[in-house]
């Protein structure tokens, strides 16, 4: 009995030790090393997949690759792992549910360290400064606070329609001017005078430079970071001079309007409320130097986050209306039935116009303005359904692919607002993808939705959007071709606007001319 017991306990101990070892091994190595990298195209030594990445509309190539490699694809560019996610479920499982490790941004040497674009919080690493900036913005653009900006959004939407009605060729510059005016006004309390106003042109130049500074594969220093310390007189150091010039533009574009806002608070010239003015006033002179700096960068992120995205969506809406007169008629009929023709719609009418809301959602699905979203960065090794995701990977959600999945959206290339059956829950699924993920999701979403509704409903209530006519009087059908950047725009297209009635023209003419 004793012997048996001894033998038994030895056996039990050995078994227990074995199980423990396997458990420890699994904890430390198993889940990681036993998991495999996600599938992806064959990688070359050193280059990885650099030569396979297209320069144009990468989301379409990634979407094509999904047929071969599936929902999660591992791509390597000079040793930098990139995880492309082609499924809404996977994107949510990782970026929403595991957001504590998926909320960093990639580190860009040229655009970030040298030019300074990692100060505004769109590119800020996930940490204290990001948190502070996000808090400033979240409180000023919350669903409770934004109705105070409705009159401004509605007025600018009406000015947009009135001016494009007078000159249809001005569609692109007018859209930029009116949306830029809204953003600068709510951020600094400054009302843009015209398209040459430096408070508009400086941030626009800064945004253009950002595209150049962050263009993948353009700057050697992004691959060899030590080059940033080379003396500026050395041959090949021209990028340092460029970075210095661009840095000054970022600085002036961010600090000049802030200082204007602060210096004019007492004179009453600063239009209230606005993000910077309200924050300065509520601090009652106690805003620390550090907080002031974070407020300046938070404010400058608003322009970067809010201008091109809204502009792209508004232009896609005009394009969709030229191409789909049947949809336009149906949306106009809804407005006529609910609002009538004696007044213009306001943002407060949103609830009662579900088909108009569906048109906006369909524009966002049909041509998502940020097709690959903004990349996140993974801060520690992770494993998802047997796939190993290395620390430092760039995470690219292919939102375009998710919104063109024929299982979720039959005939995805067609423009069909009726597919949502006026259901807000269905529409929300689209917005949830278009405006990003987890802790980095767009803090301007509610404000953006207000601006879009103001523009779309004003257009539909007052004008017919029609194709331009050629010399023979034949309608020109525009080609819906798009640019390739992080934020994609329709290429210039001609159109015509025709007032729906004399009454509509009169209502548009009544727009207040004084800044709001
Ligand atoms: C149609 C309009 C808009 C679209 C489609 C859009 C989309 C996005 C997307 C996809 C992101 C990245 C989310 C992620 O990383 O997961 C983002 C971030 C951001 N957006 Fe928007 N946005 C729009 C309008 C706005 C507006 C009006 C503002 C400002 C009021 C704004 C401010 C920002 C900021 C500051 C960030 C950075 C957030 C962070 O890194 O924590 N956006 N937006």
UniProtKB/TrEMBL annotation:
Coiled-coil ranges (or none): none
Location of this chain's protein in the cell: Membrane
Domain of life: Eukaryota
Cofactor(s) for this UniProt protein: heme
Gene3D superfamilies hit by this protein: Cytochrome P450
A GO term from the CC aspect: membrane
Binding site for heme: 442
Record membrane topology: Single-pass membrane protein
Gene Ontology molecular function terms on file: heme binding; iron ion binding; monooxygenase activity; oxidoreductase activity, acting on paired donors, with incorporation or reduction of molecular oxygen
Signal peptide: none
Biological or metabolic pathway of the protein: Secondary metabolite biosynthesis
CDD domains the record matches: CYP64-like
PROSITE patterns documented for this protein: CYTOCHROME_P450 (PS00086)
Keyword annotations of the record: Heme, Iron, Membrane, Metal-binding, Monooxygenase, Oxidoreductase, Transmembrane, Transmembrane helix
Family: Belongs to the cytochrome P450 family.
Listed PANTHER family: P450, PUTATIVE (EUROFUNG)-RELATED, P450, PUTATIVE (EUROFUNG)-RELATED-RELATED
The protein's name: Putative monooxygenase
Organism for this UniProt entry: Obba rivulosa
């Amino acid at each position: 009995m004793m012997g048996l017991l001894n033998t038994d306990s030895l056996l039990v101990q050995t078994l227990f030790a074995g199980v423990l070892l396997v458990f420890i091994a699994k904890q430390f190595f198993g889940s990681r090393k036993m998991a495999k990298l996600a599938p992806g195209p064959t990688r070359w030594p050193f280059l990885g997949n650099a030569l396979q990445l297209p320069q144009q509309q990468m989301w379409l190539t990634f979407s094509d690759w999904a047929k071969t490699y599936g929902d999660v694809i591992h791509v390597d560019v000079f040793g930098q792992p990139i995880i492309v996610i082609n499924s809404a479920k996977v994107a949510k499982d990782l970026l929403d549910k595991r957001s504590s490790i998926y909320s960093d941004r990639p580190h860009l040497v040229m655009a970030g360290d040298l030019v300074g674009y990692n100060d505004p919080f769109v590119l800020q690493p996930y940490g204290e400064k990001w948190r502070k900036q996000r808090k400033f913005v979240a409180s000023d653009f919350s669903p409770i606070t934004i109705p105070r900006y409705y009159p401004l959004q509605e007025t600018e939407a009406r000015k947009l329609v009135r001016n494009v009605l007078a000159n249809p060729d001005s569609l692109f510059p007018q859209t930029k001017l009116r949306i830029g005016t809204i953003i600068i006004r709510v951020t600094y309390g400054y009302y843009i005078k015209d398209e040459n106003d430096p408070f508009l042109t400086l941030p626009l130049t800064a945004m253009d430079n950002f595209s150049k500074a962050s263009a993948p594969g353009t700057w050697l220093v992004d691959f060899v970071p030590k080059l940033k310390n080379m003396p500026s007189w050395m041959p090949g150091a021209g990028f340092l001079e460029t970075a210095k010039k661009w840095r000054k533009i970022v600085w002036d574009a961010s600090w000049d309007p802030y200082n204007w806002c602060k210096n004019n608070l007492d004179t009453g010239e600063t239009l209230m409320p606005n993000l910077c003015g309200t924050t300065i006033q509520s601090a009652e002179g106690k805003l620390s130097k550090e907080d002031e700096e974070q407020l300046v960068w938070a404010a400058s992120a608003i322009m970067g986050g809010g201008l091109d995205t809204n502009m792209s969506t508004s232009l896609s809406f005009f394009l969709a209306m030229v191409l789909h007169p049947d949809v336009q008629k149906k949306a106009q009929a809804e407005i006529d039935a609910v609002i009538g023709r004696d007044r213009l719609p306001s943002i407060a009418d949103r609830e009662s116009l579900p088909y108009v809301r569906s048109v906006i959602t369909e524009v966002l699905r049909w041509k998502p303005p940020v097709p690959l979203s903004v990349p996140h960065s993974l801060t520690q090794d992770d494993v998802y359904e047997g796939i190993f995701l290395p620390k430092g990977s760039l995470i690219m959600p292919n939102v375009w692919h998710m919104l063109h999945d024929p299982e979720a959206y039959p005939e995805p290339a067609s423009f069909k607002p009726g597919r949502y059956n006026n259901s807000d829950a269905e529409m929300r699924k689209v917005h949830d993808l278009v405006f990003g993920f987890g802790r980095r999701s767009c803090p301007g979403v509610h404000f953006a939705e207000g601006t879009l509704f103001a523009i779309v409903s004003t257009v539909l209530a007052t004008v017919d959007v029609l194709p331009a006519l050629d010399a023979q009087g034949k309608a020109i059908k525009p080609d819906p071709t798009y640019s390739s950047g992080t934020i994609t725009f329709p290429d210039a297209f001609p159109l015509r606007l025709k007032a729906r009635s004399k009454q509509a023209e009169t209502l548009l003419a009544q727009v207040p001319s004084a800044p709001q």
